[in-house]
Amino acid sequence: MAGKPKLYYFDGRGKMEPIRWLLAAAGVEFEEELLETREQYEKLLQDGDLLFQQVPMVEIDGMKMVQTRAILRYIAAKHNLYGKDLKEQALIDMYVEGTTDLMGLILMYPFLSPEDKEKQLATIIDKATKRYFPVYEKVLKDHGQDFLVGNQFSWADVHLIESILMVEEKSCDVLSEFPQLQAFKARISNIPNIKKFLEPGSQRKPVPDDKYVETVRRVLQAYYVVKAT
Amino acid sequence: MAGKPRLHYYNGRGRMDTIQWLLEAAGVEYEEQFIESKEDLEKLKKDGALLFQQVPMVEMDGMKMVQSRAILNYIAAKYNLCGKDLKEKALMDMYIEGMMDLGEMIMHHPFKPADAKEKDLALIIEKATTRYFPVFEKVLKDHGQDYLVGNKFSRADVQLLEVILMTEEEVKPDILSKFPLLKVYKGRISNIPMIKKFLQPGSARKPPMDEKQFADAIKIFY
């Protein structure tokens, strides 16, 4: 049997965090190789371990998988978190792509200049409260079930709670107009695997700080200016 | 039975292009409803037809689907173009996501400010020839088969042909000059009947971004 999945990324959230969440939700133990130096990254490149020269990379089931969505889809399907038929999968995909877009706004935030950070913060709150959260609030209200799709815990629920917590870190009362999401957040947080992941000492990564930004720039040698889209 | 899928987008490639290619490759007839003005887009939003207020939107099998990848995954699965097991799907997904990253760069290029265009074009050419096409050239070389994954025509082949043609048409016509296997591959996939039909004049295929398309996109979306 293959060993535990091994995650190759920086010591921070970035594009790897949804993968950590999904593995945790599926109850899968995983190891991490945290990239701190340029040399580590260059070794991965030289060994041909990174298909498109990029991380995240996850060694899993004999594969060196890259591309966040490919990795997430594989884990979700393998662990029965992807719905029971094509239509449920379609709903899960739509919902996950929405929360991916929302989290994408937060992903670049630490790399922005202070003025751009202010503008981006306003965009994040605006999009969260006008475009994304209303959709999930309505989904839950309309079917009255505990989970987003098919009355069953899925990848969509994991991704949504991750995005809710991330936005709340930027604006703590962002759920004030969303009672269904408040109840959803409490409910999903209490699922044993999720509860464990939310406790101190888990492999969940903290809010990115300047040290994280500096590490990413140093390892990738990406010192260009990042602009908000 | 539901009617034909109906595609809602503006009359240009953008994010609907890959979806159109996949439907054509699967031999699925579809209709197109072109958004021609901001008002058209506003109407769709007001009617609650756009889950996240965005297009592409595809009406299909009783759903109003949004988000390109969700739509593509559904079509690929429904028409058996996505591999026979989880591992084949994983390979396809990896390849496709790489192709999408390249496609995204090309798609955004016309919207770059004038003083950044030259550098951007150079970056796209660099990525195409050192990051993306070498991967697919090697995949074909290593297994020596006709198709990218599992010795069978799949969504990965449709999307690779699309991205090759897009790069040739919108970035650099001889982009495949150092990739002999991709050249042969391109000819082979282009000759598949459904694809061949789509590549002929008079098909529903959209031309590369021109000034009119650019003006329309700005008018409608910005």
Automatic annotation (TrEMBL), chain A:
* InterPro entries in UniProt: Glutathione-S-Trfase_C-like, Glutathione-S-Trfase_C_sf, Glutathione_S-Trfase, Glutathione_S-Trfase_N, GST_alpha, GST_C, GST_superfamily, Thioredoxin-like_sf
Q: Which residues form the GST C-terminal domain?
A: 85-209
Q: Which GO terms describe its molecular function?
A: glutathione transferase activity
Q: Key word Membrane present in the record?
A: no
All copies of domain GST N-terminal, residue ranges? 3-83
Tagged with keyword Transferase: yes
Q: Which GO terms describe its biological process?
A: glutathione metabolic process; xenobiotic metabolic process
Any Pfam family from its record, for instance, is GST_N
Give the EC number(s) listed in the UniProt record.
2.5.1.18
Sorted UniProt keywords: Transferase
Regarding protein family, the annotation reads: Belongs to the GST superfamily. Alpha family.
Q: What is this protein called?
A: glutathione transferase
Q: Which organism is it from?
A: Eublepharis macularius (Leopard gecko)
Gene name linked to the record? LOC129337541
TrEMBL record, chain B:
Q: Which domain of life is it from?
A: Eukaryota
Cite the entry's keywords alphabetically: Transferase
Tell me which residues make up the GST C-terminal domain: 85-209
Query: Which PROSITE patterns does UniProt cross-reference here?
Result: GST_CTER (PS50405), GST_NTER (PS50404)
Specify one Pfam family.
Answer: GST_C_3
Q: Where is the GST N-terminal domain?
A: 3-83
Q: Which GO terms describe its biological process?
A: glutathione metabolic process; xenobiotic metabolic process
Which molecular function terms from Gene Ontology are attached? glutathione transferase activity
Identify the stretch annotated as signal peptide in this record: none
The record ties this protein, via InterPro entries, to: Glutathione-S-Trfase_C-like, Glutathione-S-Trfase_C_sf, Glutathione_S-Trfase, Glutathione_S-Trfase_N, GST_alpha, GST_C, GST_superfamily, Thioredoxin-like_sf
Enzyme Commission (EC) number: 2.5.1.18
Q: Which family does it belong to?
A: Belongs to the GST superfamily. Alpha family.
User: What is the protein's given name?
Assistant: glutathione transferase
The organism named in the record is Eublepharis macularius (Leopard gecko)
Taxonomy of origin reads: Eukaryota, Metazoa, Chordata, Craniata, Vertebrata
